[in-house]
Amino acid sequence: xxxxxxxxIIVIFCLSSVGCQKYNNEATSFDRSPxxxxxxxxxxxxxxxxxxxxxxxxxxxTNDSKQWIGYxxxxxxIVLFGSNFVPVKKFDTGDGMFFQWVLxxxxxxxxxxxxxxxxxxxxxxxxxxxGFLWATGNVCVVPIIKxxxxxxxxxxxxxxxMLSGWATGRFGLFNTQIDPISDVTMNTISIVLAMxxxxxxxxxxxxxxxxxREPDVDDDALLAAEQDLESIDDGDSSWVDALTVMQRxxxxxxxSIVSGLLYGFSFVPVLYIKHNYGDSTQxxxxxxxxxxxxxLTSTLYFVIYCCCMKNRPKLYSTAILPGIVSGGMWGIAxxxxxxxxxxxxxAISFPIVTSGPALIASVWxxxxxxxxxxxxxxxxxxxxxxxxxxxxxLAGISKLK
Length: 401
What we know:
Layout: H1 2-26, H2 49-55, H3 67-81, H4 97-117, H5 128-139, H6 141-147, H7 150-171, H8 184-201, H9 226-229, H10 245-264, H11 268-276, H12 287-308, H13 320-344, H14 346-368, H15 375-399
Helix pairs in contact: 1-4, 3-13, 3-14, 4-12, 4-13, 5-10, 5-12, 6-10, 7-8, 7-10, 7-14, 8-14, 8-15, 13-14, 14-15
């Protein structure tokens, strides 16, 4: 783990240094005005595709040849969202409040690096609201797991996350622009298949005994298991114990719906600024404010938690370094999603990015952690794979003219 963390930090440092240097060399070639024409700019393409993409400040072209940049961003998001909790897989994160603060601290650092790379664009405080929404949804995960478990909770919040984000772009909710889609029927089918693929993962049972640890609080990157659903226990009596079975199910389900909606609508403030009064057409230029909202909200909730615990919070030192690595990976994945939204639009990116990470996580579970065994599980996973790949393909095709 130590070597992996060091390697990750070195890679991030090198990429940020190269990106900043390239931006300084090329800054005079770009005009940050949203009216700047693509004909007067040159898109920087190199082996560091992602970081070169986010340094490009010209408005995205309507030409289909530029859409591949969005698919690269989506691919990065899928891989890292599906892998970002692997570093904490074997570490105890307790009740999750301390871990989520460490995670969000690393997320903010990744946003700061990205902000330097793109040249510190105008900071819009309203974009922080999106970070507030995401961090609030993230905190809800702890009581969700305690009441209805990770598997069912993940299914509910994942579905509402996907639907709300997709609907924002598809119907132009909250005074945002309606995403241009060439084939509406195909796009609708893709969202249905993506939801069906999420449903399949609920029936995959993993061997929780294969890895001795308590699950993390936002482990949407790892396969749901019945053993995981009730394994978050801090050793003390909980308010959940006073609830009846029906009350737990209702309470957990409502929280899951709320959490999913908060996740899905977290991009709305950025889209609203971009479509109404922002001085840039690049979504990535608003990412740092979004990340600031995540960090400030996470810190606020952690302070409230410390007060509720009478200044005796449960801290897990072994989760600090894994949390930093995990947060850095999540931050890069979210930046990739900003790029995907910019070049593909949310109506296309949400079905792809929200369904793909489960596929990557399952590979980790099968190949590395040996969590999933049995013919039945593999058959269900095969169906889920087919639905996920088909959904992503149809979503991509629906964008093409």
